[in-house]
Amino acid sequence: MKRKKERLKILLIISIALFFILGISAVAISSYKKHIVAEKEKQEMLEILQKMPKTTPTPAATATPTPEPTATPTPTPVITMRATFNPDDYWNTWYSADGLVSLNIYNISNKSVSFSFSQANRADGAHVCEADVTAEVAGNAATFSFNDSFGSSAAGSLTFDGGNLYVNIRTEARAEGTAVSPEVSGLFTREKKEAPKPEPTATPVPEEKPEKKPEETEKAEGDYIFPESNTRYLTDEEISGYSSKELELAKNEIYARRGRMFVTERIADYFNGKSWYQGTVPPEEFDAKQDQIFNEYESANVSKIAQWEEKKRNEGK
After folding, report:
1. Sign, CA torsion 299/301/303/309
2. How far apart are the C-alpha atoms of 228 and 12, rounded to whole Å?
3. By C-alpha distance, which of 228, 252, 236 is closest to 151?
4. pLDDT tens digits for 93-132?
5. Region at 124 (left for phi over 0; alpha for psi -120 to 50; beta for the rest)
6. Which of 95, 94, 91 is CA-nearest to residue 108?
7. What CA–CA distance (Å, rounded) separates 76 from 215?
């Protein structure tokens, strides 16, 4: 009886195991069948799609925006100068057409130029303004500004063109009482031409006047810084004892004695306070005829006093 029960138990276990195996197999077979059916349907759909005619969709028409016209600014042409010139062609001294202006270039490259400037008011060089200038070179030209030895301010340019030198310098502010200031324009050359010499002018003979009493003479001479600046050459010793401001008045004293009017208020007030001063000639008219108005002593003394005035000013005196 006991063995029978054990056999039944074993048979039951085997039956249960077989049931599970059969169940799992049935599920696997069912899944496989579904997979086969799905693959078959997929294949059929692909074949149908391949057999269908291909059509290209027509793109929808889109409106092309019309661009609004925009004003194109016309660029302003920039004048440029050639950057090619040989600095070695421009060393040393150049002269203006009239021979009154000289320009000595002592240092030059494609980047900068240094030169000394000198201009006389006439051939004998009675009045000469001078300056030393350094300027940057841009292309084949250099622009600059400077103050000359008399205190006049000027500006200008140099143009280097195929071995030719063009100079353009103008006075912007002329110092009071100067006989010459920088003013030149044109082509400079290596050869100095003789400047036209002014015709000699007769030295005016002083009118005979009644002899003054000693006290009258002393009073009259006291109104002048240099009472004899129109009748003899002044010496460096007597000029060097004055300050730059006193020498400015002494220089203009020579002009005032000849009747020149003054624009600078300080100088005009000074000479208007002198009993001997009679200002009747406008500055422009006087300066245009200065060479014919001054005698040789006055011309030389104006130049010498101006040199000492500049020296004293540079020394801060």
Report:
1. negative
2. 162
3. 252
4. 999 988 888 889 999 999 999 999 988 876 555 578 889 9
5. alpha
6. 91
7. 76
Q: 120, 140 in Cβ contact below 8 A?
A: no
Summarised one tens digit per residue, pLDDT across range 65-98 is 666 656 566 565 544 444 578 999 999 999 998 8
- Name residue 56's amino acid: T
Contact between residue 263 and residue 173 where contact means Cβ atoms under 8 Å apart: no
Put simply, whether the predicted model's pTM sits higher than 0.70 gets the answer no
Describe the strand order of the beta sheet including 141-147 as a list of residue ranges: 92-95, 101-108, 112-120, 128-138, 141-147, 153-161, 164-173, 184-188
Query: What Å distances lie between residue 36 and 18, 29, 43, CA to CA?
Result: 26, 10, 11
CA atoms within 13 A on the CB side of 31: 6
Residues 13 and 19: their CA atoms lie apart, in Å, by: 10
Residues 101 and 95 sit within 8 Å (Cβ to Cβ) = yes
> Contact 225/249 with Cβ under 8 angstroms?
yes
